[in-house]
Recover the amino acids of this structure.
């Protein structure tokens, strides 16, 4: 074989191999895009702060009854006339006045439900030293409680404060979008019980899901966009004061 | 331990060679003699491996063998991250939900489901008020979800709170018809404020609004007033009647009345012969 022929054949082989690789990769990417990608929309203007979502979440997911252990929680933002902002996490039982404010002091006040943002680039997954927290194919971030060593690194890393250490299991715990309900075709418990439909659940990739519709019709924000975590929990009617 | 390379500059070759030769005890040659770079004129290296090196390599071989052996013995689920995560995912999927969803309720309780679906509570799931009911859906007789009837339940959503969105129906739980459970007046599956007939409210809207917050809210206008049809055409000439006897109010408020929760007085001695409505405004009677 002449040297020139040899080089030509090697070049042809390499080109074919590379093209095949690219094609395989893009096919895999297309396959990945075909699955669902769950997200939640929260309409701040509809939340009445009744705390039913927190109760239902505790019931559904065996979250400890004691206060301060929440997979989802509701914050009351109160913007006062002097420009200061008070943020209170409301208890499971609410109702009644605005916790120590008179109406004359308050410019505006509203409730913001919060939960794990199921980030597309989750800092908690990045920092876990034993790979106990991971992303499923449909974008939900889960914790493998058998693998977790309870080092609390993820709790520190989460910019949204969505994780807590389960006091009995001593492992990190957080919202799973009620993954066991999703696979049975049900919506998460907090969405199920929300009396005002302030929470909307759906598939971000399906053009027919209620979430996609909400995102089409409303102006959408996410929490802490500068951190580039790409949250899958989106907010409509979010005030600039919300952090 | 004496290291030849370290002392090379300071002592010179001769001394170094003497130190590194290990000629004194051929069974235990100095390590520095083994590792030192050979130079011209050095004695040949000892033929057998020094014992310390042999021991170390034995330990090393043991460690490697142990590691490899353990890895082959361990089940793949302990080594493979993908397998572990798949197992965690399966565990997560296997958890049983506790909230059944409103559609499951509608399969048996079709009537209430339909009523609710057409009322103001159409977006409120059954389990929002009745609690998680999947157990009830599976064994309807053994497990029954609670039906909250107490007055403290509805204000969870409907008590006035300044953070609640404008337009959401809210009441003051202290002033709003005290002592009555909400479900006396409001059907929770189809909540509506109790209404005065529009024929009356068209002119007497103030009375309508007042009565809506009074203990007499449940009484129809016609309980106390006879309303002739002509009153709508000529209100001044065809008047509605008012109660003309104390015994009329006494039906509920006298001491021998059977009504369970009204304030009772002695009709004969109370009020010195005035009619009741001359002192008490019936559309908003005071509690005292």
């Amino acid at each position: 074989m002449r040297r020139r022929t040899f080089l030509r054949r090697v070049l042809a082989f390499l080109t074919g191999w590379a093209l095949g690789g690219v094609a395989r990769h893009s096919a895999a990417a297309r396959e990945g895009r075909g699955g669902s990608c769950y997200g939640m929309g929260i309409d701040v203007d509809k939340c009445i702060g009744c705390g039913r979502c927190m109760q239902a979440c505790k019931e559904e997911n065996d979250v400890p009854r004691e206060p301060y252990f929440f997979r989802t929680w509701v914050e009351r933002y109160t913007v006062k006339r002097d420009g200061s902002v008070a943020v209170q996490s409301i208890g499971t039982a609410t109702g009644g006045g605005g916790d120590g404010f008179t109406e004359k002091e308050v410019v505006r006040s509203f409730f913001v439900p919060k939960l794990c943002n199921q980030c597309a680039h989750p800092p908690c997954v990045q920092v876990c030293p034993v790979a106990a927290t991971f992303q499923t194919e449909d974008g939900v971030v889960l914790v493998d409680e058998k693998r977790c060593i309870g080092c609390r690194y993820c709790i520190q890393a989460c910019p949204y404060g969505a994780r807590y250490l389960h006091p009995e299991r001593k492992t990190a715990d957080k919202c799973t979008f009620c993954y066991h309900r999703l696979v049975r075709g049900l919506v998460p418990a907090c969405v199920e019980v929300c009396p005002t439909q302030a929470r909307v659940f759906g598939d971000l990739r399906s053009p027919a899901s209620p979430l996609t519709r909400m995102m089409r019709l409303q102006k959408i924000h996410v929490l802490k966009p500068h951190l580039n975590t790409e949250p899958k929990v989106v907010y409509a009617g979010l005030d600039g004061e919300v952090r | 331990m004496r290291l030849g390379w370290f002392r090379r500059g300071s002592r010179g070759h001769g001394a170094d060679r003497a130190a590194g030769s290990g000629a004194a005890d051929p069974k235990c040659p100095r390590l520095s003699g083994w590792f030192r770079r050979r130079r011209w004129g050095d004695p040949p290296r000892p033929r057998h491996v020094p014992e310390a090196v042999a021991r170390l390599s034995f330990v090393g071989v043991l460690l490697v063998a142990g590691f490899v052996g353990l890895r082959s013995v361990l089940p793949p689920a302990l080594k493979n991250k993908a397998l572990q995560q798949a197992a965690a995912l399966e565990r997560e999927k296997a958890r049983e939900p506790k909230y059944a969803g409103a559609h499951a309720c509608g399969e048996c309780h079709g009537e209430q489901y339909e009523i609710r679906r057409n009322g103001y509570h159409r977006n409120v799931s059954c389990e929002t008020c009745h609690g998680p009911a999947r157990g009830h859906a599976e064994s309807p007789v053994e497990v029954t979800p609670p039906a909250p009837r107490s007055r403290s339940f509805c204000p969870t959503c409907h008590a006035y709170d300044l953070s609640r969105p404008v337009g959401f129906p809210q009441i003051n739980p202290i002033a709003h018809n005290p002592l009555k459970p909400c479900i006396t007046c409001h059907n929770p599956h189809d909540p509506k404020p109790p209404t005065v007939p529009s024929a009356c409210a068209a002119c007497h809207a103030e009375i309508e609004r007042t009565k809506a917050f009074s203990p007499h809210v449940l009484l129809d206008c016609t309980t106390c007033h006879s309303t002739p049809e002509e009153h709508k055409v000529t209100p001044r000439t065809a008047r509605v009647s008012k109660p003309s006897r104390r015994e009329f109010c006494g039906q509920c408020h006298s001491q021998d009345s059977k009504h369970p929760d009204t304030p009772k007085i002695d009709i004969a001695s109370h009020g010195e012969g005035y009619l009741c409505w001359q002192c008490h405004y019936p559309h908003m009677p005071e509690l005292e």
In short: Chain A has a mean pLDDT of 88. The CA atoms of residues 33 and 205 of chain A lie 8 Å apart. The two ends of chain A are 70 Å apart (CA to CA).
